[in-house]
Amino acid sequence: MMVVFFSFAAAYCQDTTKATPPFLTMSAAQQRQELLLKRLSDYSYIISRDFGKFSVTNKDGSIFLNNESLMGKVVFVNFWFDGCSPCHNLFQPLNRLAEHYKNNPGFKLVSFSFDDTAMIRKNVKKYQLMYPVFHLSETLCHSLMTDKGFPSNLLLDKTGKIVDGFGVTPLLGNAHFFEENIIPKIDSLLNNKQIHH
Q1: Best label site of 35, 105, 144, 150, fewest CB within 10 Å?
Q2: Is the model's pTM score more than 0.90?
Q3: Is the separation of the CB atoms in 81 and 93 below 8 Å?
Q4: Considering the domain boundaries, does residue 196 fall inside one?
Q5: pLDDT, tens digit, for every residue of 42-89?
């Protein structure tokens, strides 16, 4: 057990930046925090998984949006809630993304929040959100975003598989993250005409 820990810790230290203290010199609490942050920001293990099952219903109970209605589309999924300050930092980049693809029927941007409908409406109005935001339970939000922290963002291919994911961290140092990283991925997925089942 000790060998596995030290082996992992040594590998972890090689991945850290110079600004981060070496993992082995951190206190136990600092090590736990570093590992948690790394887990929350690591989306690599969910790539190629199917996006979880969900449905959004109309007031009459009919299904308005679900996995099946998104099949055949490239989908960008955003999770947020009002009390999450970093979540608000994504509203304008997501508005730019929605604007960029507004005339492309092969792309869908959807956002989910566990906030109540009044709070969602308040944020949609305040930030002039140009994309749909749907209420889902907090439990379902956590399940769909595979228990990542908020905000969480997933890019799905036309078959509903997760092909990319990230939180807010990549945006902090790059105001053009969407334009430089996400839009090229979306364009590539849109140009892939094959749908594999």
Answers
A1: 105
A2: no
A3: no
A4: no
A5: 788 788 899 989 888 877 777 788 999 999 999 999 999 999 988 998
